[in-house]
Amino acid sequence: MTGRIHRFDALDNFRDYGDYASAAGRRIAGGRLFRSAHHARASDADLARLAGLGIAAVVDLRRPGERRDQPSRRPPGFAATVIESDHDDGREAPHITFLKTADLTVDAGRRFMTETYRELPFEPAHLDLFARYFRALAEAEGAVLIHCAAGKDRTGLLAALTHHLLGVHRDDMIEDYLLTNTAVDLAGRAPGIARQLETMTGRPAGHDAVVAFLGVEPAYLEAALAEIAARAGSVDAWLEQALGVDAALRDRIGERLAE
Predict the structure, then answer these.
(1) C-alpha angle with apex 115: 111 to 118, nearest 5 degrees?
(2) pLDDT tens for residues 240-249?
(3) Catalytic residue among 59, 120, 143, 148
(4) Residues 6 or more apart in contact with residue 189 via CB below 8 angstroms
(5) Is 14 helix (H, G, I), strand (E, B) or coil?
(6) Which of 50, 73, 131, 238 has most Cβ atoms within 10 angstroms of its Cβ?
(7) What is the pLDDT of residue 2?
(8) What is the Cα–Cα distance from 96 to 110, expressed in whole angstroms?
(9) pLDDT tens column, 163-200
(10) What's the CA gap between 15 and 31, in Å, rounded?
């Protein structure tokens, strides 16, 4: 699994989430589906490497304010389609509000993340972006890259929904989702992040609390998928009703991504 991780100078959590067995004995091609954190700090060498990946569409899942604060760097001659949302509710990013106001404990972090995942699939900006992403999967003449800020929550959910759509086994879906914890070296970086949080908030944050908040756990993704099924009847029904991913679009995506 760690062979999926692409190491860059300053572009975090960059991974290939293709190359999995899918439904009906088929396999998703590698080099077609990429995911990452934001690109604001990408080095010139990172940009040169990105330019060689054949990326035809980039889906930026961040809020307008996040994009203004950390604008993406692009390779010279960049010509990929960029899919982003102008929907702005004017609120501070929820994770920033949490860090400023909540107890930085394991239980508080897990409660926040679980509730966040329950709401993620139904936010207007995500409904728009996810629908446009699935259309791009069927239409783009090249690889598709999805990213948010850290490349773990919004990005992780969308990658998991893609795996579900393509019939990737649930165990592979979860394992791919959890690879974030390895890709960002969460255990190694937690002490430094805890110090940063204490400086920012004036309150101590323990190692386990940092891991719970900044990492991913199966329960977070399961909460999102369960909420989707509870509201729509099933994940498949939600994909069609909320995102317009009908049988014809499914087939086109499957054909384009199959080896």
Answers:
(1) 145
(2) 999 999 999 9
(3) 148
(4) none
(5) strand
(6) 50
(7) 67
(8) 15
(9) 999 999 999 999 999 999 999 887 788 888 888 877 87
(10) 10
